[in-house]
Each structure stands twice: as C-alpha cells, then as structure tokens.
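Q: I'm building a small set of examples for a reading group on sequence design. Run inverse folding on the following structure and report the sequence directly after it, with nothing in between.
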C-alpha cells in the first residue's frame, strides 16, 4: 500500500464515531495540510473538478474555517469529519453528514472523499453505514441523500450497497464547469429512516 500520512496524535481524540476499522473525528484548525494533500491527487479530484487540485489558500482561508463554523452551528453533531485507520492512525480522508446551509436539520447529505491509498477496502461503505446508523438513531434525521456524477461508479456503488434508492437524475447546469463525464449528468439517491429501519 502507498504511504499514508501519519496523524500527529491519537486519532481517537475528539472522536465523533468509531467503526470496526475507522475512527471519525472533528477537524481542527491544524488540519489544513491533510485537506490540501487529499485534494492534490488528480485521481481523487477526477469527478469533482476534472482532476484540478484545490488551491491551498482556498482550503486555509475558506474551506477549513467553514468546516469549523459548521461544528459551532450544528453543535458538533453534523458536518465534515476526518477519518483515520484505528490501527496506526493514518488519515484516510473525510466523510460528510450535513444539512443544506438553510435546509431542515432532519434532511442531510452523505458524502465521502478518501485518499487513493485507502480505496477498494470497503472503507467508504463502512464509514457511510455507521453514519447512517448514527443519523437515524441518535441525530433525529428523517432522510439522507447523496448525489454524484453518473460516471462515478465507485460512489454510486456505495449508495447502492447502503440500500439507498435512486430518486432523481440530474442535468449538469449550463453555468457549471464541464469536466469529463459531465455530459452524462448526475444521480441522486435517498434513504428514509423508515427504509433504514426495515433493513
Ligand atoms: C468513491 C470512493 C469514496 C470509494 O471509496 P472506497 O473505500 O474505495 O469504496 P468501497 O471500498 O466501500 O467500495 C464501494 C463499492 O464500489 C466498488 N468500486 C470501487 N471503485 C470502483 C470503480 N472505480 N468502479 C466501479 N466500482 C467501484 C467497490 O468494488 C465496492 O463494491 P463491492 O464491495 O461490491 O466490491 C473513493 O474512490 C474516493 O474517495 N474517490 C474520490 C472522491 C470521490 O469521487 N468522492 C465521491 C464524490 S460524489
């Protein structure tokens, strides 16, 4: 396996959620470099920006402050969470469980962005499953949704494995930057609390 960034201290500090193999924690103001490195891999960014990395100043000045502000807004229960392997503490990427900025708190988006070295090991499915469980049993969530490009089969496979239902197909808005596969549009999957409980 490729190198993985070591996390400077115990990954279980500030823990949000634990799964069999992963610990999810809240980001801190010291985490800009982890986010910058994650977004510097063109393969990670392929279906997000067409491969272009996120500018480091954007991460430092806008994205990370927004993540931290989200914890204030939602009491630390919702937002973007750093994921680490429990065994060794390597940072593997992040998961998101977050309402729309002005949307209802009981309808939240699920998302994931993992380092390439961590792909193909079931981590995205494992983390997402635990997030759905937490959302529906602890956080009073009624519905979880996720969207991705039609050509992002890995991402869609996770939604299917979570028994989410395809509820909509999306057209790329004309003002949006076109990247490889944009012409095929996107997909939206949803799962309600009732559907989750029936599983
Ligand atoms: C999408 C992503 C999170 C998947 O992470 P992962 O940990 O490799 O996912 P999992 O191992 O849980 O795999 C989920 C399923 O998708 C399948 N899969 C993985 N990569 C695939 C690919 N390129 N094409 C088709 N299926 C794929 C896996 O085989 C698995 O199904 P299986 O268990 O039946 O074999 C990861 O590739 C990533 O971070 N990509 C870059 C960022 C991104 O695109 N995020 C989503 C934006 S909406």
């Amino acid at each position: 396996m490729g190198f993985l960034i070591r996390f400077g201290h115990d990954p279980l500090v500030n823990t949000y959620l634990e799964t069999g193999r992963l610990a999810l924690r809240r980001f801190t103001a010291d985490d800009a470099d982890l986010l910058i490195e994650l977004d510097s891999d063109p393969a990670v960014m392929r279906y997000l920006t067409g491969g272009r990395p996120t500018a480091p100043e954007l991460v430092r000045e806008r994205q990370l402050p927004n993540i931290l502000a989200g914890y204030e807004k939602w009491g630390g229960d919702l937002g973007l969470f750093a994921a680490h392997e429990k065994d060794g503490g390597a940072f593997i990427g992040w998961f998101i469980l977050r309402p729309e900025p002005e949307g209802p708190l009981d309808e939240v988006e699920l998302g994931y962005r993992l380092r390439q070295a961590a792909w193909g090991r079931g981590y995205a499915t494992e983390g997402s499953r635990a997030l759905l469980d937490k959302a529906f049993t602890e956080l009073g969530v009624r519905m979880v949704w996720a969207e991705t490009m039609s050509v992002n089969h890995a991402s869609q496979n996770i939604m299917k494995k979570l028994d989410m239902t395809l509820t909509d197909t999306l057209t790329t808005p004309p003002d949006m930057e076109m990247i490889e596969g944009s012409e095929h549009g996107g997909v939206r999957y949803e799962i309600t609390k009732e559907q989750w409980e029936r599983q």
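The first helix runs from residue 32 to 38.
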